[in-house]
Amino acid sequence: MIVLGVETSCDETAVALVQNGKTILSDVVYTQIKFHEKYGGVVPEVASRRHVQKILTVFEEALIKANLSPKDIDVVAVTTNPGLIGSLLVGLNAAHTFAYANDIPCVDINHLHGHIYANYIESDFHFPVLALIVSGGHTELILMRDHYEFELLGQTLDDAVGEAYDKVGRVMGLTYPAGVKVDRLAQSGKHTYSLPLVYLDKNRYDFSFSGIKSAVLNLINTHQMKNEPINIEDLATSFQESVVQVLVDKTLQAAQEYKVSHIIMAGGVAANSGLRKKMGEVVACHKEFILTYPSLRYCTDNAVMIAVAGYFKAQKLGIPKKNQK
Length: 325
Ligand code: KG4
Ligand code: ZN
Prior knowledge:
The chain has about 325 residues and is an alpha/beta fold. The chain contains ten helices and ten strands.
């Protein structure tokens, strides 16, 4: 089954073609980062307009690279939520028009489910699966007992972890998106600054990152007011290790409670070196779990993950492959 995936929920215009949820036939991503950098974050109006300008070219490029024509495609899969509404509408309109014009069924995909399925490109799922989603807009723990069954165990009550990284990076003078730059600084520092670890005991699998973000901002302000130097690498390491500690502890606790076999990390922050290392070390001590995370390209937004999710959603809905109709 060949699925065409479309992703425009934020600042990437992406179209991909994937066969049987595994074989990538083409993968086109046009990133708008340079247009948002100067504003320190994604400007929704700018994002929608860039999607409008690029969507048709990206569609055509994906088909040409895969050497396929519309008649070869079994299903169209498109991100419909969550995301910026103006951006989502561009992908949604393009995908539905293409599907309608070529008589192809079209399935709606939740962007976060797409992030989870980015793991399937390189690894099969061993159920029960626990997914830690860490992106710019979301931080969630999701339990999956089978394909395309999602049970939300907990989520952030305020900032998403990627958002905290971006805001902390911004006050450190780093450009958007700052997460990867904070990660790089953290690799050469020491954990010297004491920052709050927020566990929210009552909601065991919920998260909160606004406290640690504010603590970093206050620390920088206080040092500046007193004219005291601050070691930016050490601050990045202290922030990263504190955040990672909470993410890893809660994931491990949920993995044990729900007796999962497979822990998955997904979303932009799954690219984080500290999180990969710490989660890897902890899981290595627990032979009952395996750990996977996508390669760096498939941690951040792309359309391959939407096509893979579309493959499983089509199966769940009983949509047949074209020549089986
Ligand atoms: O999943 P994604 O591409 O977009 C959303 O769906 O939100 O995630 C983007 C987020 C940004 O906040 C970015 O700063 C963060 O992922 N990010 C990282 C790293 N790479 C990307 N955060 C920490 N460490 C990284 N290496
Ligand atoms: Zn995303």
